[in-house]
Amino acid sequence: MFRDWVARWRGRQGQQTRPKSYAQAQWEHHHAPANQPLQAPAGAALPPGLRVYAMGDVHGRADLLAEKFAAIDADLAARPAASHVEILLGDYVDRGPRARDVIGLILARRRGGCLEALAGNHEELFLRFLDGDLTLQHWREMGGAETLLSYGLAAPRLFHSLDEEISFTRRCQEAVPADHVTFLRTLPTHREVGDYFFVHAGVRPQAPLAEQSLEDLLWIRNEFLDWSGGFGRIVVHGHTPVGRPEVRSNRINLDTGAYITGVLTCLVLEGSRLHFL
Predict the structure, then answer these.
(1) Cα(214)–Cα(189) distance, rounded to whole angstroms?
(2) Cβ partners under 8 Å of residue 193, min gap 6
(3) Sheet of 273-276, strands arranged across
C-alpha cells in the first residue's frame, strides 16, 4: 500500500518524467524563484502589520523543522514584524524517523505564544491506534511503525494472539507521554487569517467553510484539488505531496514530501505578497 502511494505521488509530478532524486528535489527547491516576492492569488491579503509563516507536512523530520524554526527566527531578526503567527498544517508523525522529537519541538516552540499547530490525518491515525480503534497492521501501512520506533518501541510484524496485541498496545499507551497525547487530542482543524483558510487536506467545494466535515478537512483529496472555482478564501494546505509548492488562484499547496525529499516548505505571507523561506 505504501509503495502504491509513493508511485501515485511520483505520477503526479508528470507521467513522462523520471522520479525526482533527493538532489533534484533540493536543487529545484532552492533554485526556483521561491524567495522572490509574488502577488498573492485573487487579491488575497492579511491585516496590516501581520506576517504569517506556514509550513507543510513534517512527517517525523525534526531536523528539517528545527532548521525552519531557525530560519524564521533569522527572518524576524532581519525583518521585524509588528506581529506574526506560525502555522503548521498537520502530519507531524509517521513515515519519518523522529515523530517524538517533532512533537517535542512544537510543544517547546508553542510556549512562545506565536505557534499554532493544526491537526492532520496522521495525528488522527495515531490517536485511533492508541485508543484501540485501529490495528497496528493498518497503521503500519501509513507509516506508524516509524512513529513507534521514535518512542522506543519496535512494532512486531505479526501478533500470535489477541492478548499479545492488546499487551503491545498498552505498552504503546504507556510509552507516549501524557502531554503528547493531550497535544494530539486538542489540535484545531483549521485557522482563518485575513483572506486565507489554513487546513491540512483541503475543503469540500461549494460547501460553506463553517460547515466543513472533519473527514474532509483531514482527508479530502481529488474533489478539492481538481476544483477550479473559489472556496470563499484562499486555502493553504498540505496532505498531497508535490515536487515544489503550488500557488493557484484558489489554493496554495505546501506539502513537498519532506520525509522523501528532505525539503520542508515554509510560506511567508505579508500584506498582499507572498514568498517562500
Answers:
(1) 8
(2) 46, 50, 52, 85, 87
(3) 38-39, 273-276, 266-270, 50-55, 83-88, 115-117
pLDDT digits (tens, 9 = 90+) for 28-64: 444 444 566 777 787 889 999 999 999 999 999 999 9
Side chain identity, residue 25 = A
DSSP code, position 20: P
Alpha carbon of 134 to those of 60, 114, 137, 222, 254: distances in Å? Answer: 20, 33, 8, 25, 28
219-226 long-range contacts, Cβ below 8 Å, gap at least 24? 219/121, 224/251
What is the spatial distance between Cα 103 and Cα 124, in angstroms, rounded to a whole number? 14
List the beta bridge partners of residue 63.
none
Give residue-wise pLDDT tens across range 55-66. 999 999 999 999
Residues 165 and 115: beta-carbon distance below 8 Å: no
Cell numbers for 25: 528535489
Could you tell me how many helices (H) and strands (E) the chain has, helices first?
Answer: 12, 11
Strands 115-117 and 196-199: unpaired
Predicted structure pTM score: 0.85
**Identity at 270, one-letter amino acid code:** E
